[in-house]
Amino acid sequence: MAKDFIDRAHVIIIESPSPKDILRNHREGGALAKMLDLAGVKSDYYEVVNGEMFDLGMDMAIDAIRVWGLAEHKEGAPEGKLLVVFHFAAHGGENGIVLTSDEEVTWHAMGQELLNAGNELKRNRCGDGPACLFLVCLSVCGGFRAKQMADGLDTCPFINLVGSDLDVNWSDSLTAFMALYQNVIVKGKPIPNAVVDMNAAAGVPDLFKTVSYADLGFRKG
User: In the beta sheet, which residues pair with residue 133?
Assistant: First the structure.
């Protein structure tokens, strides 16, 4: 990705804080949305507390991406594909993310949701505009397990996934992901290089890792 995505990126942040996080007013995703706004990066933030709201948030995100993609197309956006980032901020478990309500959204269910979103947007080319690339990021303890979302699917629901094998705290995660988006979206760095830089920014080597569709044996398309 030698060319930056500053005019061609849309970050979708879906956050499900724990009850304790809510009482302490801790919103890693909310803080990230404010920082992206300062950097001039388009983003939408959805706070969800249960499974119904998670599904609704995904539906609203797809609609927002479609409208944005159509506007970019009509306004003569720079040539090239649009980058759509799905950033999930929540507590994690072995099999998926844990919502405020203590409901679990499994990796398989998330993969299906993202695949459905990709199919929906691909049919419309991000709102009849350019095609979309999906980057999926997990600000979740053990979030690198989310690569399981591609298991059993014929099409990988992302070009790259970024997550951690470790327990992560909000401070390190916020610092790391802001560095990732600065480097990928604003500076145009390749994702693997940007992941090295995000770990350096957090001061924790190898905290986050990335895997691509090709690493998982999928073909481009």
Answer: 83
3-state secondary structure the chain: CCCCCCCCEEEEEEEECCHHHHHCCCCHHHHHHHHHHHCCCEEEEEECCCHHHHHHHHHHHHHHHHHHHHHHHHCCCCCCCEEEEEEEEEEECCCEEECCCCCEEEHHHHHHHHHHHHHHHHHHHHHHCCCEEEEEEEECCCHHHHHHHHCCCCCCCCCEEEECCCCCCHHHHHHHHHHHHHHHHHCCCCHHHHHHHHHHHHCCCCCCEEEECCCCCCCCC
Q: In the predicted model, is pLDDT for residue 13 greater than 50?
A: yes
Are 3 and 188 in contact, with CB atoms under 8 Å apart? yes
* Structural domains of the chain, with CATH: 9-212 (3.40.50.1460)
CA end-to-end span of the chain = 17
Beta bridge partner(s), residue 96 = 106
88-142 residue pLDDT tens: 999 998 999 999 999 999 999 999 999 888 777 765 454 444 456 889 999 999 9
Q: Which residue has the tokens 């009482």?
A: 23
CA atoms within a 13 Å half-sphere pointing along the CA-CB vector of 151 = 10
Residue 212 has phi, psi (to 5 degrees) of -105, 170
